[in-house]
Amino acid sequence: MKPPSFDYVRPRSLSEALGILAARGDGARLLAGGQSLMPALNMRLLSPELVVDIGGLDDLRGIVERDGLVRIGALTRHVDLQRSAIVVRHVPLLAVAIDHVAHPAIRNRGTIGGSIAFADPAAELPACAVALQARMIVAGMAGTRIVPADEFFLGIYETALGPDEILVALEFDAVGPDQRSAFAELARRRGDYALVGLAAHARVDADRLDEVRLVYFSIGPTPVRARTAEALLTGRPLTRDTVTAAQAALAADLDPPADTQASSAARRQMARVLLARVVMELLDPVPIGAGG
Amino acid sequence: MPGTIPIALTVNGAPVSRAVEPRLNLVDFLRIDLGLTGTHVGCEHGVCGACTLLLDGDMVRGCLVLAVQADGAVVETIEGLSERGALRRLQDAFLARNALQCGFCTPGMLIAAAALLAQDPAPSRDAIRAHLSGNYCRCTGYHAIIDAVEAAAAKP
Ligand SMILES: Cc1cc2nc3c(=O)[nH]c(=O)nc-3n(C[C@H](O)[C@H](O)[C@H](O)COP(=O)(O)OP(=O)(O)OC[C@H]3O[C@@H](n4cnc5c(N)ncnc54)[C@H](O)[C@@H]3O)c2cc1C
Ligand code: FES
Ligand code: FES
């Protein structure tokens, strides 16, 4: 279908954009890469009075590393993440996950900020942000505030962002020498939204894990941490028994929905399979790019 | 009713200026306002890839970009790319391998395949499949398309 009618503005500065949002409130919608907003408009799921195209705010673009922190501007495209040496080196979880986000033509426009703000329960990047305890840098008329990823995702397509706020960047800690990440998802085709996915991050000491974070996606309204399984994998040798116990604990940690894509039981089984895969990957990582 | 907005861009090498409604997407602008009907429209929500075109050199979905967003941009469509011979090898290989039947997906497939060969001149079959995963074909069953891209890549 064709989108409903709307007005369009392309502000030239962040403060101009914030002013427009403050004046127009709920009737306005930000447009970043458009790869989620345009389908929603075309299907007439949304009918904003005003579309505010933030594509011209070049300050919101780019990836920089300084003093152990990596800052990624909200308008940084998926393809820019894929090509970034900083991301491969300091935030490798994103480098692996981004290959699973949509298809090349969509990655050429879609942005990290749009993906985080849209908060699709099946999306990869929100789960990665939670696994890595990213900070969301959010601008409003009153100034800038920082929201931890753990407090950002509130429900299906619902975040801590107010209607008059703009996500300007994400900030990540660069991974330390004793930290590792792992990522796995099951989808029907490369580039489709996951049936179930898992982003993991931990401190690794020989065959032991510490500070384990297991964040599932496409298994609840927001990224879901498997806290019991995390605890069972922490601080003990990773034997077959340890992994089996953590897999069994997922029964309590996860309450997967059934939909046209998969039953709840099938999602539970996939979640167990992915857990074993990421534990193997944490212990014995495949170099980025070698996994296909 | 929102008014129209003036835009000026380059399409297949020629300057174009028009006034457009904000809600008009780029593929409809090309097809309806400019009569360039080589770029097809299938799903209109980003899933099928029939509307694939180049925007400032990047392959994008024409149905997920507004015409107003293309103000100042350089757009290339299947018409322009064919005319300047940019797709010759792929087009010959598609013909030789029967990689099209109804042809609806073909402009998008050719542009997507060309984008792959530009970044990886000798892709594996798996890489070809992964790269074309966003382009639907309802006729060929894909094998002939993968064969054709592989054959075009192998040519010197
Ligand atoms: C066919 C298809 C397949 C896809 N598959 C996947 C997939 O497998 N995994 C996946 O994760 N995604 C997938 N996507 C979505 C894609 O990753 C989008 O790029 C992403 O979800 C949104 O980013 P965007 O920049 O395009 O945002 P837009 O579409 O421009 O915006 C999305 C929403 O976020 C708001 N917004 C955008 N930027 C900001 C900001 N800086 N501050 C506050 N609010 C903002 C907008 O107002 C809008 O409500 C797919 C899309 C398509 C069309
Ligand atoms: S018409 Fe654009 S992707 Fe289907
Ligand atoms: S040839 Fe008919 S859709 Fe591909």
Summarize the structure.
Chain A has 292 residues and is α+β, with helices and mostly antiparallel strands. Chain A contains 11 helices and 14 strands. In chain A, strands 4-5-10-6-7 form a 5-stranded antiparallel sheet. Chain A has a 4-stranded antiparallel sheet with strand order 11-12-13-14. Chain A has a 3-stranded parallel sheet with strand order 1-3-2, covered by helices on one side.
Helix content of chain B: 25-40%
- What is the 3D form of chain B? elongated
The value of Rg of chain A in angstroms is: 19 Å
Helix-strand pattern of chain B = EEHEEEHHHHH
What class, by secondary structure content of chain B? Answer: alpha+beta
Beta strand count of chain A:
14
CATH second-level architecture of the largest domain in chain B: Roll
* Strand order, largest beta sheet of chain B: 2-1-5-3-4
Strand content of chain A: 25-35%
As laid out across the biggest beta sheet of chain A, the strand order is 4-5-10-6-7
Largest sheet geometry of chain A: 5 strands, antiparallel
Q: Mean pLDDT of chain A, as a whole number?
A: 95
